[in-house]
Design goal:
single chain, alpha/beta, TIM Barrel, Immunoglobulin-like, 3 domains, 8-stranded parallel sheet, 5-stranded antiparallel sheet, 18 helices, 28% helix, 16% strand, binds 1-O-alpha-D-glucopyranosyl-D-fructose
């Protein structure tokens, strides 16, 4: 496979339709809202939209519980609206990648309704059913959303596996008929003209023997069982390889060792994976995300640099800070304590990520520097993950107090990313004329698209420039990677080289100015001939021997 592929040069924009743009007054965003905002996305310069699920769903997990893979959720519109969106996007040269959620379906999917109806139903084996053990579940497998991953079904007395919510039964990929049904469904969408898939928890589709055993024993995690690569190769042969598309697998268990199996240059499985290591740096090693452990730049540098170096020449990276499962990057890794620092640090984070090797993903609102939600109570929240964790850790095990839990929810909860897109300073930030399904972040009067689109100093304009630079400078797409000043606790500095060009990226992750950086720390043979490509302060500090002074949250990107 040649090294030139459109998805390597592309920038992806993720839309969480529920929170993007409502055009009906229902308080819920929809497909026509996305179509209406295509020109905004075209102006930003993105190439691909990743659309979070728009399929029919009871919305226990906001569309990640699908009850019909080939129908649109009526809250979002109709299939004709989808077709129009696809056509209008293509007209503007924007591709659309759909979310593929096939580790599990909704318990309202007809497949599951049939499957649970009797022990000998032909679809029984499309899901994972086991007898209990000694009056309890088959084994100790736990759900990502807290508690046992097994739910007893009174109808037949057996348990079914759910790695996520109770209403998200896992599909049985060991069954060839099920695989065929999934591949047929994917083919149907691709024949409609969509441009690829983002594959939800694709690393969990193959279950290890211990997780399937009804022996009351210890179950290994379902994430990362090597058998999954057989399924992905089959999917690739039967479906993906027949189309010119982009595929990205969400794989929280992926390591720099396994990523090339998924996303190697042989193209046998998917084009890239979403790895998770950098999203865990501020989680407590024991309690996970529900106890905030603080941000450590050294860890972040180590992780991202390891991925950059290990995949170079072997596999392709995806680059992201934010998505619908993560808190807002500017609040998490930057600084939203003042307007000035918010703008500076949002830009710094953007440059830090977008100048790396890989395909960058922008999550809706990130390009405006949208911040975490100031939600104070559980009533403000909507996320099943938060509710289950609260029930388990505060009410159940009692390992966290209410206040500790709410602190973690505010810092790391998924609803931070799910507040409505801030379009303007009008009612509900221009998101909806009705009552939004989740609260609007009150800072929308200052943080909104309308205030930023025409402002050359805005976060939006900065993203626009970064996207443009990627198109103009092959070193950004193809260069190798070298971390500089690895032990510096405030600066993240790296260099990239390609065909005689060098890119130098300097990012200050602190609110302090950093002095005493010598050109020799950054360049191999003096700083002469360098050109400032982009920065978040007006120009360089007027000083001899620059760049010796790096200002709070400053970023500067040089080319030579
Ligand atoms: O996410 C999978 C996943 O790994 C997350 O659940 C993650 O572990 C969690 O958010 C961290 O707190 C995917 C989807 O992106 C997510 O929205 C779904 O809820 C989940 O799968 C189930 O489909």
């Amino acid at each position: 496979m040649s090294n030139k592929q459109w998805w390597k040069e592309a920038v992806v924009y993720q839309i969480y339709p529920r929170s993007f743009q409502d055009t009906s007054g229902s308080g819920i965003g929809g497909l026509n809202g996305v179509t209406q905002r295509l020109d905004y996305l075209k102006d930003l310069g993105i190439d691909v939209i990743w659309l979070s699920p728009v399929y029919k769903s009871p919305n226990v997990d906001n569309g990640y519980d699908i009850s019909d893979y080939q129908a649109i959720n009526p809250e979002f519109g109709a299939m004709a609206d989808f077709d129009r969106l696809l056509a209008e996007a293509h007209k503007r040269g924007i591709r659309i990648v759909m979310d593929l959620v096939v580790n599990h379906s909704s318990d309202q999917h007809p497949w599951f309704i049939e499957s649970r109806s009797s022990l000998d139903n032909p679809k029984r084996d499309w899901y994972i059913w086991r007898d209990g053990f000694a009056g309890g579940p088959p084994n100790d497998l736990t759900s990502v959303f807290s508690g046992s991953a097994w739910e007893k079904d009174e109808k037949t007395g057996q348990y079914y596996m759910h790695n996520f919510a109770v209403a998200q039964p896992d599909l049985n990929w060991a069954n060839p008929e099920l695989r065929k049904a999934v591949f047929d469904m994917m083919t149907w969408w691709l024949d409609k003209g969509i441009d690829g898939f983002r594959m939800d928890v694709i690393d969990a589709i193959a279950k290890p023997a211990s997780a399937l055993a009804a022996n009351g024993g210890k179950a290994e995690t379902c994430f990362g069982n090597p058998l999954l690569h057989e399924y992905l190769k089959e999917m690739n042969q039967k479906v993906l390889s027949r189309y010119d598309i982009m595929t990205v697998g969400e794989a929280s268990s992926a390591t720099v060792k396994t990523a090339p199996i998924y996303a190697g240059h042989d193209g046998a499985e998917v084009n890239m994976v979403f790895q998770f290591e950098h999203t865990w740096i501020d989680h407590d090693p024991k309690l996970g995300k529900w106890r905030y452990a603080g941000f450590d730049l050294l860890k972040l540098k180590e992780i991202l640099s390891r991925w950059q170096t290990a995949l170079h020449g072997k596999a392709w990276n995806s680059l992201y800070w934010d998505n619908h499962d993560q808190p807002r990057a500017v609040s998490r890794f930057g600084n939203d304590s003042t307007e000035e620092l918010r703008v500076l640090s949002a830009k710094m984070l953007a440059a830090c990520l977008h100048m790396m090797e890989g395909t960058p993903y922008i999550y809706q609102g990130e390009e405006l520097g949208m911040t975490n939600a100031p939600f104070k109570t559980l009533d403000d929240c909507r996320d099943v993950e938060i509710f289950n964790a609260y029930r388990d850790l505060v009410k159940g095990k009692g390992v966290l107090t209410h206040d500790e839990m709410m602190d973690a929810v505010q810092k790391l909860g998924r609803d931070n990313a799910r507040t409505p897109m801030q379009w303007d300073a009008g009612v509900n930030a221009g998101f909806s004329t009705g009552t939004p399904w989740i609260g609007v972040n009150p800072n929308y009067k200052t943080v909104n698209a309308a205030a930023q689109i025409q402002d050359p100093a805005s976060v939006f304009s900065f993203y626009k420039q970064l996207i443009k630079l990627r198109k103009e400078r092959p070193v950004i797409v193809h260069g190798d990677y070298e971390l500089l000043l690895p032990n510096d606790k405030r600066l993240f500095v790296y260099r990239r080289n390609f065909e005689g060009k060098t890119l130098l990226v300097i990012c200050n992750f602190s609110a302090e100015k950093v002095e005493g950086i010598k050109p020799a720390d950054l360049w191999k043979n003096g700083a002469a001939g360098r050109k400032l490509l982009i920065g978040n302060y007006a120009g360089e500090p007027a000083e001899p021997g620059e760049p010796s002074l790096i200002r709070p949250y400053e970023t500067r990107v040089y080319l030579r």
